[in-house]
Amino acid sequence: MEGHQRNLYLYERFNAQVVGVSRDDVTTLKYWGKGLGLTFPLLSNITAFLGDSFAVQTDGNPVFNRRTVIVDSKGIIRYVKDGSSDFKDILLFLKKLSQEGGHP
Amino acid sequence: MNRNCPFLFCILLAVIYMLHDPATAREALAQTSGQTQYRVNENGKAVYQDEFEFVPLPSEWELLSHAEGSDTVIIFYRKDPGSSLSRTIIAYNEEPYGYSRQLEERAREFMNRFLWDAIMQQQILEQKKTRALGGEGLDLVIEAKDKIDGKKVRAEIVFAKRGERIVAFNVTQWRTLDEPFDLSAFDVFSRFVGTFKTLKKSFYENL
């Protein structure tokens, strides 16, 4: 998450907005985000419907699997990667998407 | 963020977040990928991954490296005489704790996380402006003690700018409470920082 915070100025150049989603409650996310100095939105999804939508909710697991998803301006999922965020890969993809105007 | 811009992308992150960061010395070493070699050029300088150049450290320093995500980290390790705890680590880190691109602010953010999971009381002994990577830098010297575990650490962190971003060099020396620090390691560190050069633009500068 700190890596995304570091890259906010670059995301902005590529017209991207980062949003974190977690099953933690709002209060937990508020203090957690404050502790790390995060300024981008963190969404609390305790009912896990977003986890189902993005296929990161494993049955019986109280937390989402970690996944990075990039959605373009038309709402089309353009990038999916599991595990820890590969920031350089994300930035290269956003650059490419920005250059092509966000269209497939 | 210009919300009127024609192209709005969204990164959704489903997170299992570990309140844990692998940058303490112990964890960094646990994640090392083994000894890494560098080549020595005609001027006697070490060239690491064709991107960094520095005067090689004395032979007792073992070069290790590890990949923390997509970040570049170069680590030198030296087992020091004395207790099993006694060791010194010198490192160059492309993504030090924090996120600010201002030196003083980044140092403040860094100190909130440095040695965080060692749960030690830290004291900044010295903070001064310096030169590093051919530009302005910020030099911090700290000491910390853990009276319960009976250990202490002395560290020096030099923050520098590489393009728009902040990078950091640090030396971290661990001792038991009754063992003296070996300040000669900090001279080695100063030489490492003073001779360290980048040979090409970073990923972020080329982006």
What is the CA-based Rg of chain B, rounded?
A: 18 Å
Question: What is the CATH superfamily label of chain B?
Answer: Mog1/PsbP, alpha/beta/alpha sandwich
Question: What is the H-and-E element order of chain A?
Answer: HHEHEHEEH
Largest sheet of chain A, if any? 2 strands, parallel
What is the SS-derived class of chain A? alpha+beta
Quote the CATH topology of chain A.
Answer: Glutaredoxin
Distance N to C terminus of chain A: 28 Å
Secondary structure: elements and pairs:
The complex is a heterodimer of chains A (104) and B (207).
Chain A: H1 2-6, H2 8-13, E1 16-22, H3 26-36, E2 42-44, H4 49-53, E3 67-71, E4 77-82, H5 87-99
Chain B: E1 9-14, H1 25-30, E2 39-40, E3 46-48, E4 52-54, E5 62-68, E6 71-79, E7 87-93, H2 103-113, E8 121-132, E9 135-146, E10 151-162, E11 165-176, H3 184-195, E12 197-198, H4 203-206
Antiparallel strand pairs in B: 2-3, 3-4, 4-12, 5-6, 6-7, 7-11, 8-9, 9-10, 10-11
How would you concisely characterize the structure shown here?
Chain A has five helices and four strands; from the N terminus they run H-H-E-H-E-H-E-E-H.
Describe the structure.
The complex is a heterodimer of chains A (104) and B (207). With 104 residues, chain A is α+β, with helices and mostly antiparallel strands. Helices cover 38% and strands 20% of the residues of chain A. The relative contact order of chain A is 0.18. Chain B is α+β, with helices and mostly antiparallel strands. Helices cover 16% and strands 42% of the residues of chain B. Chain B has four helices and twelve strands. In chain B, 33% of the residues are buried. The chains are: A alpha+beta (104), B alpha+beta (207). The interface between A and B is large, with 53 and 29 residues.
Essential attributes:
heterodimer; A: about 100 residues; alpha+beta; Glutaredoxin; two-stranded antiparallel ribbon; 4 strands; globular; B: about 210 residues; Protein Transport Mog1p, Chain A; 7-stranded antiparallel β-sheet; 4-stranded antiparallel β-sheet; 4 helices; 12 strands; about 15% helix; disordered N terminus
